[in-house]
Amino acid sequence: MMRPRWHKVFSDLTSNLVRSLLVVVSVAVGLIAVGMIVILYHAIGNDMREGYLAVNAANIQVRSPVVTTDFTDHLKNIPGVKEVEGIRTFDLRIRTSPDQFKSIRIKAYDKVEKSVIDQVRLVEGKWPPAKDEIALEANRLGDTQYHVGDKVEIKLASGEIKPLKLVAIVHDQTIGSDGGGAGFFLAPIQGYITRDTLVKLGQPDQLNAVHLTVSQEQNNLAYIQTVADKVQKEFERNGFDTAGIVVRRSEDHPNAPYIEAMKAVLYLLSFLVLFLSAFLIINTLSALLTHQIEQIGVMKTIGATRWSLIWVYLALVFLYSLMGLVLAIPLANVTAFAELLSVAPTLNFVSRGFRIVPQAILTQAIIALIVPQVASLIPVLRGTQLPIQQALSGIGSGDVRRTDRLTLWLSRIRGISRPMAISL
Description:
By secondary structure, this protein is an alpha+beta fold. The protein has eleven helices and ten strands. Strands 2-3-8-5-7-6 form a six-stranded mixed beta barrel. Strand 2 and strand 3 form a beta hairpin. 35% of the residues are buried. Mean pLDDT is 83; it is low at 398-403.
């Protein structure tokens, strides 16, 4: 048999469904916001880190006016060096419309069939490109008019136009990793060819950059720098100049710094939503207790203590919180991963898709058990402290003095429901 206090709780829960829905939604909105932020915090960081590790990004990038293939092979003998690849990068112009050309940065592979550093992901077509063929990077493909199979028109420094067959669309997560220019967000269109195509584009058949990975401690920047110093000394010993050296940990995605700034904004928004949610709970419970002053007086008359009344209303808030939590968990997951899929191309990483993030569920559960209860204490303690005679008379403490202009204005509007007035 259900005890009277539980009858009271469920009666308040079901007697005004609009009011109950308002409280549940207000709790759920705050929990959804927090859940989304926790999910995005973990998912974006993990996906960006795991995806970047998978492409085997270079730990050391050395720029030089001229590098030979024999010398790149020689660098493999340096202690701590695991893999070495020579490339050539240069800028030309690509036709993007009948009367417009835009900048394109082209990366020419020395031995593309054996390339294992800075791997690209094939989106469409075939990889690797052959002689007189080119692949374009997916993130800037919208700036062009080309599809796989088209002839891409490249404008040389001399003004001559050279056509290359577009054979692939690829995704390159290492754009901006060389530390030059404005990084990924302002990077030009990216193209990928083999060394056999250099002469056609008016380029010398020479390499001007070397990418290396270290054999161990690939996420230890101090160790990577030690190996980079050895590489630089080897360049100098063999008569090759260096124009710059960039070191990077294998898990350090070029766009990772932007994530930290985005997280700070998201956390600020989550606290704001939680504050507004708590404020709505306070208003709703205050309105409920104002209408139940006589009931409080009756319960006190038949022996209810103040603490038993507090228990009744906190139990009601707990049920509101529980329903809000049940609503928030799936909605936060669906919304967060939809946002993740949307933001992944913008930040140049690959989303690993939907999955359960235990940290988000735990955080939502803790907040659902704490924030609504704390927020409800203010109106509950105030409403249950009235003496029996005052409660039975239906007059709350300071009702007249607490009526502000907004409340009076809303009370004069016909057709507006009390839950809507409370939320306003």
